[in-house]
Amino acid sequence: MTRVNLAIIGGGLVGASLALALQAGAKARGWKILLIEPFAPGDSFQPSYDARSSALSFGTRQIYEQLGVWQTLSPRAEPIRQIHVSDRGRFGATRLDASEEGVPALGYVVENAWLGQCLWQSLDRDVVSWRCPAEVKAMQPIEGGYRLQLDDDTSLECDLAVLADGGRSGLREQLGIHVRRRPYDQSALIANISPGEAHAGQAFERFTEQGPMALLPLPENRCALVWTRQGMDAKRLAEIDERSFLRELQDVFGYRLGALRQVGVRHLYPLALVEAEEQVRPHLVVLGNAAHSLHPIAGQGFNLSLRDVQTLAEGLLAGPAQPGDLATLQVYHQRQRLDQALTIGFSDQVTRVFGSGQPLLAAGRNLGLLGLDLLPPAKRWFARQAMGLGTRPDLRGRA
Fold first, then answer.
1. Superfamily of domain 2-180+272-386
2. Rounded to two decimals, what is the model's pTM?
3. Average pLDDT, the chain
4. What whole-number percentage of the chain has pLDDT above 70?
């Protein structure tokens, strides 16, 4: 039976990033890494108006620089040079500026297909192999590892299984790993927008009584929209005609980018904060959205997962010759516990406080936004959270 040192179940952005972070050290140790992914990556990047995208923090750029992929990735990474945070109908607002923080950009917005292509092409095929398209149907703990049963009726064994198959992981449930789930009673409407004026690297976070929204800069002067609304209202917005949709969006967002001209395909995602109650077991790690799935409005989810990836890779390469040792995995989880708690707490509180229509909370957040502009230390703290640097002293905020 085939046996590998590491089997990464899920070859998406998190799984591929882990393989990349491990491959140089794995080659030196003679490890073999297998990525198992149900959807085959494309042979080439195909630009699309409707491409889904991710917001990468400045800290994520630093990690990808260390992994040697940023130079390849950067030509289609649209820099966020300013973030404008406002509360609809109130005076409270604050602006974060990359130049004030001493960085070239507060973050970057990258199409997922491009990010995936850059990661996959950077993998060393002598160390990292693929089973794709393939899906793990069952996992069984065995002495010194796991046995994986694939959907083509083949099996393989591994010293360490990394579960990175997303927030709706069926394998997580199969293994009896419980989750804490806190629904937001909201859905995120995701779409790309063409504004009438140049976005000039500006990102907008806008809070309303119906829920928060974000508009992020993309290449070709597009913007990525994340609009959070109550379930039935979100469904209505997803189904109305383009002209009516743009009219409602314009009314909420205003004319900071001129008249909104085009909207692409609209997608809806029900929102909840989901945390796995176990992230490590002997010979098993739960990673990415399978470990923690956050509200998208604060843009922290993938960036936190990448910091998990970096810490896990460092721990594995400093650990025993055979990966999967529980003590090593527990050290990893302990190192990331504070980062996860602070990032999840920050994301959750921003969502709950700024998404509420209660008068007292609305007045408080209005004063809070005014206070950020008046108190440089508070503004600096908020900016570091946005840049993914607030919980990691090893990532520096100044380039």
1. FAD/NAD(P)-binding domain (3.50.50.60)
2. 0.90
3. 87
4. 85
